[in-house]
Amino acid sequence: MKILILLFILSICCVYQGFAQQDTIKKFDIEVSYNKTLHIIFPAVVTYVDLGSENVIAAKAPGAENILRVKAVKKDFPDTTNFTVITGDGNFYSFVVRYSDKPAQLNILIRDNHVIVEDLNDVPPVMVDNIARTIYKSNRNDIKYLGCKRYSVQILVKSIHVYKGLFFIHVIIKNNSNIPFDIDYTRFTIRDRKLIKRTARQEIQVNIVKAFNAQTTIGEHSTIRTVYVLPKFTISSDKIFVIDLIEKEVIRNLTIQIESEDFFNAKTIENLKL
Questions:
Q1: Are 156 and 172 contacting, i.e. CB atoms less than 8 angstroms apart?
Q2: Which residues are registered as beta bridge partners of 247?
Q3: Do residues 187 and 244 lie in contact, with contact meaning Cβ atoms separated by under 8 Å?
Q4: I want to staple 152 with a disulfide (CB 3.0 to 4.6 A). Which of 100, 177, 206, 265 is the partner?
């Protein structure tokens, strides 16, 4: 009898714990506008989006599978609406949406189930776009030693610029094969340089703030260039910065390792004609 009572108490505790875990799912309050785009940066790839009404549209940013772009379809919609997002790591996010002509934030970073405002280091989004566009148009080859080539597909870093802590990485991808290259995602991480045996790898994902001219497919015998904008970070000498270009459902994955010195020696934008 005592065993049955104990099992009953344990089952009640498990049910209560399940409800408690469900209660930890937070509803994030955000504002959207008709004339401006809100970017929400998730810690993992966005796999599912469900919109609560037709007043809001949302889509993943090209070339950045963890970034969701959100806008209002019409001005001054009166009631609140909502949408939900599920990411590749199994996390569930719920957003309550209100309309505002002047949203308080245009870039939101979600980390550890908390919303962190990504203020772009006080750089206006228009300025970020202008810098990325100028770097793309100038098309300089400041760096000639960072690259990777496999199966007639090559990725190269052409330049690294910095402005108020934001890094602008200009990347070129060349597909010299007879098969189109479909990009699943591009990942930026900071990893341990050397690993002690039986020690788990330490890896920190660096979320993309913006990707200028990002593409999802590189045709056969084609070339594309993209300028990635990353938030401020620093790398110690025992770490390495890694760019992974992952092909969808195929094996032609490419990796570039970048030393900390390349970021500390990043060029400023003073010589760019903005």
A1: yes
A2: 183
A3: yes
A4: 177
Give how far Cα 229 sits from Cα of 164, 170, 188, 208, 210, Å.
12, 9, 11, 6, 5
Tell which phi-psi region holds residue 122, choosing left (phi > 0), alpha (psi between -120 and 50) or beta. Answer: left
pLDDT tens readout for residues 67-109: 899 999 988 888 889 999 998 888 888 999 989 888 877 888 7
Cα–Cα distance between 139 and 116 in angstroms, integer? 33
Are 60 and 47 contacting, i.e. CB atoms less than 8 angstroms apart?
A: no
Residues composing the chain? 274
Q: Which amino acid is at 234?
A: T
* Spatial CA neighbour of 66 closest among 160, 214, 187, 151: 187
Strands 114-117 and 107-111: antiparallel
Structure confidence at residue 114 (pLDDT): 52
Handedness of CA 26, 231, 170, 271 (dihedral sign): positive
- Select from 244, 262, 258, 249 the least CA-distant residue to 150: 244
Global pTM?
0.60
- As separate numbers, helices (DSSP H) first and strands (DSSP E) second, the chain gives 3, 19
Task: Identify whether the C-beta of residue 170 lies closer than 8 Å to the C-beta of residue 131.
Answer: no
Using alpha carbons only, give the angle 189, 192, 198 rounded to the nearest 5 degrees: 125
Low-confidence ranges of the chain (pLDDT < 50): 2, 4-24, 116-117, 119, 196-200
Question: What is the distance of C-alpha 228 from the center of its chain?
Answer: 10
Q: How many other CB atoms are there within 10 angstroms of residue 67's CB atom?
A: 24
Asked whether 205 and 270 are in contact (CB, 8 A), the reply is no
